[in-house]
Every structure is written in C-alpha cells, then in structure tokens.
Amino acid sequence: MALCAKKRPPEEERRARANDREYNEKFQYASNCIKTSKYNILTFLPVNLFEQFQEVANTYFLFLLILQLIPQISSLSWFTTIVPLVLVLTITAVKDATDDYFRHKSDNQVNNRQSQVLINGILQQEQWMNVCVGDIIKLENNQFVAADLLLLSSSEPHGLCYIETAELDGETNMKVRQAIPVTSELGDISKLAKFDGEVICEPPNNKLDKFSGTLYWKENKLPLSNQNMLLRGCVLRNTEWCFGLVIFAGPDTKLMQNSGRTKFKRTSIDRLMNTLVLWIFGFLVCMGVILAIGNAIWEHEVGMRFQVYLPWDEAVDSAFFSGFLSFWSYIIILNTVVPISLYVSVEVIRLGHSYFINWDKKMFCMKKRTPAEARTTTLNEELGQVEYIFSDKTGTLTQNIMVFNKCSINGHSYGDVFDVLGHKAELGERPEPVDFSFNPLADKKFLFWDPSLLEAVKMGDPHTHEFFRLLSLCHTVMSEEKNEGELYYKAQSPDEGALVTAARNFGFVFRSRTPKTITVHEMGTAITYQLLAILDFNNIRKRMSVIVRNPEGKIRLYCKGADTILLDRLHHSTQELLNTTTDHLNEYAGEGLRTLVLAYKDLDEEYYEEWAERRLQASLAQDSREDRLASIYEEGPLWYFQLLGATAIEDKLQQGVPETIALLTLANIKIWVLTGDKQETAVNIGYSCKMLTDDMTEVFIVTGHTVLEVREELRKAREKMMDSSRTIGNGFTYQEKLSSSKLTSVLEAVAGEYALVINGHSLAHALEADMELEFLETACACKAVICCRVTPLQKAQVVELVKKYKKAVTLAIGDGANDVSMIKTAHIGVGISGQEGIQAVLASDYSFSQFKFLQRLLLVHGRWSYLRMCKFLCYFFYKNFAFTMVHFWFGFFCGFSAQTVYDQYFITLYNIVYTSLPVLAMGVFDQDVPEQRSMEYPKLYEPGQLNLLFNKREFFICIAQGIYTSVLMFFIPYGVFAEATRDDGTQLADYQSFAVTVATSLVIVVSVQIGLDTGYWTAINHFFIWGSLAVYFAILFAMHSNGLFDMFPNQFRFVGNAQNTLAQPTVWLTIVLTTVVCIMPVVAFRFLRLHLKPDLSDTVRYTQLVRKKQKAQHRCMRRVGRTGSRRSGYAFSHQEGFGELIMSGKNMRLSSLALSSFTTRSSSSWIESLRRKKSDSAGSPGGVVDKPLKG
C-alpha cells in the first residue's frame, strides 16, 4: 500500500499538542491523506510493465521476442511472439488499471469528506486529507470518525459517546467510549480553543483493542486507555456531538495499519506447473542442442558442397558457428511447447469457477440474504483436494444464538421440568413456559420452563437475589430505551446478552449506566450502584469482575468466569457447595451447555482505597502497562470468593451439521474441532454432530498437566491402537518389533475407529518441538480430533503442524476474530458470516453463512474445479507438444535449417484462435457426473486428495501422446506426398501443400481429441469446437485469396494454394487416415479401461444409465392397459425402500453402501494400491498418511 507521506524512521513514542500545528509539524507526522492506489497516469505504464515482467513466463517470452529480432537466427516473424505477448500484457494491464481506478475513486471519496476542524478558535470545514495531528475535530451523530481521536467531550453526560465499529471488526453492536473527567467539561468552542494539553503515547500500531498514553495538562498527569479513543472507521451513534483530539492520522491510524496484504497462497497444481515448465524448458534446450549438433554435422558434411546454391550468411564462418545460430533458431521455433496463453487460460478458468460459487443459489442463505463468495480466484481447484478440516465450534458448528437454559444457585439446580412420576419432561412434553407477566419490563421472547426458580425469587431467597443481582451488574452491556418500558440491550457477546436478559426477566432489570454508576430495577425498585472498577475479561484471566458500592456503602466484588479459573479461587468454607455445584457443572457440560461460575467477595474500604491507588499508578505507566495492571488484578486479597452458583447457556447446532460431517467423513476428510469451550461441552457437541459415535472403539482423552503426563497418555493411546492392529485382515500378524519409521503406516491401518480429545494445557505441551510428532502420529490415526480450551494462537499452531509434516491440503473454517490466525494459516480459509462480526470473513478465501454449505463447496465446486483444471492442463500440454514436435521431425529433412513446417500465421493463431476457446469451454463447464451424484457418492472426492488426475505421471502420458501424434502428423503426410500426384498427374508434393495438409490434420485431430475429453456437452462447447474449425478454414482460405495478395503481395504470395490442395481427394484421405491413426489408440485404450478397470466416476455414470433405462422400462410398463380394480403398483415396481435406514439416522452412509454394489474388485484396489504407495513413501515418522479406503 502506497502512502501520501514519505517513509519516516520508526517512532519510539508519539507526542501531540492540542491546537499547536507548528509544534506538531516538526515531528513530520503523516497527514490524514490516504492512498491505496498503486499508479497514476505517468507511472502506470512503466510500473505495471515492471511488475508484469517480474513473472518468469513474461520475461521468458520477452527474451524470445528479442531473439526473433535478430535476423541471423530468426526463421519466424517477430509478430508470432509479440501478438500473444502483447495480448496477455494488455489484458492484465486493463485489469490492473480497472482495479486501480476504483481504488483512486475510493481514495478521493474518503479524502474529500468534510470535517469540522477547530482552527484559530473557529470551527471550519476542512477536507479529511487536510486534517493534521493535534487538531481538534467536531463530530456529529452518524458521522464517520476522520482519524484516531482522543475523546475530549460530548453531548452526553459524563463525556460518554456511543460508536459502531463495523468497519474495524465487523461487530454491529454499539460500544461506549468516555472522555476523561477533566476534559469532559470542555463543551464549548472557547474552552476548547484554549486547551493546550499534550499527549505522549505509544507509536502507531495495529492493535485495535489496546492503547496506552498519558495526557499532560495543567500540571496533571492523566492515564489514557482504549476506552478514551475513537478510531478511524467508527461511526458516531446516538450522540448529538463530540470533540476529539487527533492522535494518529492517515496511514498511522489503526484502521490503515490493519490493512496489510494477506499472505499469497498457491495451489499444489501451481507449484507442480512451475516444476513442469522448468522440465519442459530443459527438454526444449535438449531438442535445440540435438538439432544444433545435427546442423553443424550437416553443414560440415553436406552443406560445404553446396555453397554455390546455399551460401552461408556473411557472419557465419564455420559449421560450428552455424550450429550455434541454429540452436537459438530452434529455441524460437520450439518455444510453443510452453505457450504464454497457458497462464491466461488458467486465470480465466479460475475466474469462471469463482463466479459459479458466487452464483450458486443452493449456497444462498435466504434468512440472512447472504450469498456464498469466492474472495480469491487462485485456490478453486485446491478445494477438490482437502484432506483435513479444522473447524471452530461456537458459531461455526453451532448457531451462536445463546439461550439461558439452566442454572445452579446455592447447590440447587433449576431448569429441568419433572412430570408427576418424577421423570424429566422432554421439550415436547413440557407445560407452558414460566409466566413473567408480573414484570412489565420482561423480555417477551425469553422462555424458561422451571417455575420453581421464579418462586424462589418471589419468596425473597437471598442467594437467588444475589445471583441475579450479579448478572445484572457484572457485564459491559449497553441499554437503550426507545419507548417507555421498551429496553434494547447491546451486548459485545451473545453469552452476555443472554445472562443480562435472564436477570431482567427474573426481576433484576439492568436499566442504565454511566461511567460511574449502574442503575438496576430490583423487583420493581430502582437502585443505583456506584461503579468503582471493571476488571474486564481476556483470554488469560478468563473471567470478568466489577467492584461496586451499594446504597448502604458496602463494597463488593462480583465475578463471573470459567470454572477452571474460579473454582481454584474460592474460599475454603464453600467446599460442600463447591462439590454440589461441580456435579451440576459436569451435568450441564454433558448436555452440551456453555457454563460460567458466579462468585462474590466483600472488600473493606481501606484495602480498596489502597488497591485503587496502585491501579491508578499502573495505568499511568508508559511501559508494560498491561502487565502491571494484570498483576494487580491477580492479587491474593481479590481471591477467596464466596460461591453463588453457575449458569448454563444453550448454543444449538446449526441446521445440517451432522449430515455435512457424515458426508465429509465418507469423502475421507478428517475433521478436527478446535474450540475454546470446556471439554465436556465440546465432547457433547461432538456426539451431537456425529463426529463422535457410540460405535467408536475408544475415545482417548488427554488431560495431562505436565510434559511427562501428556507424553504418557499419548503413548498409551498409540499402544491401544497398535494392539488392535496386531491382527489385521485375515489373521495376518506382525511378529517383528515395529520400528518408529513404520509406526505411522501401522497406526493408519488400525482396526476400529478412534477419536482424540485434548485440553488446551495438554496441547501446549503436545505442540512442543520434542513431542509434536508423537501428537501428530496419534491424532492422524484417529477419525476425529477435538481440541478444547485452545487459544487463537494454538489453533494456528495445530494447523501449521499438520501443514508442516503432512503432504495434505488443509482447510480452516470459523466465524470469529479468534479464528483469523487459523484461517490465514491453512491452505484454504473459510469464513462464516455469523453473530461475531465479519473479521473471519474479511480474512478468508471463501465465505458463506452456514456450515452445511461446506459440503457443496468441496464435493461439488471443489471436485469439479480440480477435475476441470486437470483435464485442461493434460489437453493443453498434449495439443502443444503435438503441434511443436512436428518441427523437430522436420528438422531431420530440411538440413536442420530451422525451417518451419507451418505457415507463420498459423503458428501465431494456433494457440490464441484455433484451439483456445474449446479448451476454455472444457475447463469452465466440464463435469464427469452431475452435482447430485457428487453429493450421493462422496468417494468420488478421493482422486483429488490422492492427486491422481494431474501429476508427473499423467503429465508424461500427455507428453507421450503428444509426441506420438506429432510423429504420425508428420510422417503419414510425408510418406503419402513422396509418391502422390494431383488429378492432372503432376507431383502433389510441395512445401505449401504439405504445410496446409499437416496444419489441417492437426486442427482436426486436436478438435476430435477434445471432443473425446469433454464429458459434459453444452451449447457453448459445440459452438466453440465446431466454430473454431470453421474459423480455421475461413482464415486459411482468406490468407490464400486474391484479395489479401492484392493488398499485401509480399506477405500473402501463395494465392490459391489452400483451395488447390484441399481440392485433392488424396489430401483428404491423408487427413482422415492421420486422424484415425492418431485417435484410435486413445479410443481403444479408454474402451478397455472402462470395461476392465473403471474409475469410480465411470461406475457412477454406468449406474446412472442403468437407472434411466429402468425408469424408461417402468414408464413402458405403465402404458400397458389394465382391467379390473385399480391397485397401487408401488410394491411391485420399486425395490425395498430406505425408510428404516433414514429413520435410524444412518442414511448418509447409503452412498458408500450403494456404490459398493456396483464397483468391481479391480476398481476398488487401484485407490488402495496408491494409498499404500503414498504410505510407503512417507519415510519419516512425520510423514503421516490416511488409512486405506474400505471399498
């Protein structure tokens, strides 16, 4: 990203003085002008060309063009290379220019926004680009914040203001910011004009949630935090006006600091293509060397005798030098083995695949009006090769819509409803929900089924009252009252909103807050608490606390947090209550509910005053402020809580999650869930979404707290799997002691299905360098892996571990900011547009709104993209070798003189006109089976995982076919023309007639070949294939016409040659013979393979044809007239249905069961043998591979 300001040395600290531009200018801070565009009118051409020629392919073709400009070595006109090169450069330049135009347009729109700036005591309208550090700006309601501002004052009491941060983090809920007390009174222009405070703070950075600085004013030293800042990109809401001091401007703002480019991802096919292109170039050099040697020998042995007729050029003085020049001539002629159009065609195909994803109505969420979006075009084919999926749980597998379900208060559990026999009532059997009509402020959408909890509240139970009092006070929710009694809560997380809403319905209504107070209506009575401190939640503390003073003057700390943290900090007197509550927590977690523990502690006045002073000093520190505050929050006197109880919130599974996971598992994709939830909750969700099943041999749970414990638990898990694998198949046993190098393959072949569940603290040890391989071996041998209590960093580390040691494509999917690192680390990142904002979407490669769409993205779009790209590449290399190698064979018959077989216009147009559109149509539209069959038979996905359709072996097969075609393409016409005559008896053989015959044969052969390769015919395929043939003949006849000869007599001198040549029956017989001989072996091979060793897709297509025939027969049977009574023919015309199977919930296994009845013995073994090879090739313990298919 380019910036308006010149590059400056890194800052150590930022100093900004209010209303003093002269002082601030000496630091040369960046202006508020932003520039995301890359070019201007003068720099576009040189800069864009420089960027394009950094691509190796473009530089290579430029080098060839330079060679063609040297007369001594060029046997082709320069336009044969410059036309395709200019076409490619122009297309790319137009695309880059269009993108940059829109960036310019966006920059101008933003930079020219108007802002009210206080200059010389007067508010003046200024463009955003003219705002400077140290200026005071006035914002009004619904305006965007122009720069990173220190909030000075606002129209709201106590200097509060409300902002929306959707452009920063995607969260649409309102957040509150507050001016420091000493500046909150600066509400009028005259006071602000005299304000000369100086801010010393951290240098520009990209941390959106942190800011530390100090304001020096009137001999006061005041701490500043993120709560005092308004960041660029935010929108002022529900606040009439506010004033702010510019701290960071333009490129220094946190919004722009976060706009860095993500890491460029390449597919495995891209990497393979780069390798193959280098091999082809080496092959090209070898051919050039052979022909150059041939030229030197021919000139020495033969050419020397014909100097009178074939004199050397003036610069050539020896046969050796002639061979040297011939080498470069052949490099030019044979360069079409790697045409420049290959790279353009690949990008066009990928773009088409991306549009198919964007246009897919079956991945469109009607509820949210959200389509699927391919945010990159470079990874589509890799969607068809995924072996590992790493998924978040909350909001990805679940809906992230939280419902207050149960709670435990003082050892009593509430939330279950029992019938008259004392049995738990199921949801459908429950009576009416609790009636909250006594509370006029209750949320009518809130439902709770256990009336005993409301009775306890109405009876005045002190523990129950204190429980809901905590929920109504310990939070950061904002309350908005649009009409009298109509409360709207804006919560930073769905959990928090659910808890405050529960307290509201049970009579403890959070009504409003100021920076220093919280007002709650407790059973109809308004009570205002003095808010002394908020100890906010973070990933380390895993709890939130507030310190409040009640109207009686008593100071109390309320805390809610994770059980793993709070239960260790309870007072010893609560042991009995702790045991009961722990039982309730385990019960709730076993039901898949999200739990929090609630506790409180009374503080004495003296300790609080001393603690508050130390907290203030820590907040004023310029360095390590966060660490100092954290240590103060962790002080012992703030421990030893009194336990109140626990809450249990339900987060329901998304629709279609179990079916999606079952289908992806059948496709041999392993799914790992990485979640921050506690172990019991995650395990229960695992069972709910069918990742874990009762049929599994064993679920290993790793919970060790030390390195030794974790290593021992992993070792025991591997031993149990090894024990089960000692007898594999038909009683074959392993007698020898297995070495560590064989461990992986044996673990992959274990009998039975296993799952691994590991906790965050155990995972921290498992990811250490000396244990990561042991963990990976164990995990990869399991069908499912669940990592609980993991941090965002650990999520990324797990993905990186699999990428590092497994030659497998990984996909990470999540919906929140805590999933961003995982999404960026994986080969493919997928963002769910859910309840946690759009940060995951912004960091992703693909996005949609529901997890169930993942099966369609992979099994349909991904598989098709991989299939199409592989078929495209195989055909592309084939047709170009068939085209180019003819020159090689001709070299042996033309004295190695670098004479071309084809007309130079044919060479120019072959790849960009005659054969470009048919292969593009195949690459964009081709299918092997319809989308319904792709979903019905998930095993079809496996060839992509094994990289079967385009690899080095397939590449050499394509090259061999191309060379075979070129041999026949040259020698059959050559042999015919040696003896053939025209109708009038004259000799048929001449150079131009031979060129037309070979070129026509080539175009027809490659057109027939692409017809054979096309599996799904559309009108576009027909039009492009037959249209390209028609265009070839039209251009051929036009170039040999009188009209072009009259206009360009030096260029088109062979008038009537095409017409005369193609009028000869011998020529057409030669073309037909060449076509048949080139194509018949391909047809025969495919016929034999289809019948002797069919692919999985061949089998599925066959079953589809059988079904169509059966349906046609049924229709014919129904046409036969009937007499007598009408009876249903259902039982007679259909096979046994799958009703019981569907009701059992195992219907997703139908695909593999149905498929097994059609597959032959040989068709199942070919994938197994390849998997075995892949397993054997993984020599190191880290080279873990998947276990063999089971049919």
TrEMBL record:
Q: Which InterPro entries match?
A: ATPase_P-typ_cyto_dom_N, ATPase_P-typ_P_site, ATPase_P-typ_TM_dom_sf, ATPase_P-typ_transduc_dom_A_sf, HAD-like_sf, HAD_sf, P-type_ATPase_IV, P-type_ATPase_N
Q: Which UniProt keywords apply?
A: ATP-binding, Lipid transport, Magnesium, Membrane, Metal-binding, Nucleotide-binding, Translocase, Transmembrane, Transmembrane helix, Transport
**Compartment(s) where it occurs, according to its Swiss-Prot or TrEMBL record:** Endomembrane system; Membrane
Listed Gene3D superfamilies: Calcium-transporting ATPase, cytoplasmic domain N, Calcium-transporting ATPase, cytoplasmic transduction domain A, HAD superfamily/HAD-like
**Catalyzed reactions per annotation:** ATP + H2O + phospholipidSide 1 = ADP + phosphate + phospholipidSide 2
Q: Where is this region: Disordered?
A: 1167-1191
Enzyme category, top tier: translocase
User: What EC identifiers does the entry list?
Assistant: 7.6.2.1
Family in the record: Belongs to the cation transport ATPase (P-type) (TC 3.A.3) family. Type IV subfamily.
Record's protein name? Phospholipid-transporting ATPase
Q: Which organism is it from?
A: Daubentonia madagascariensis
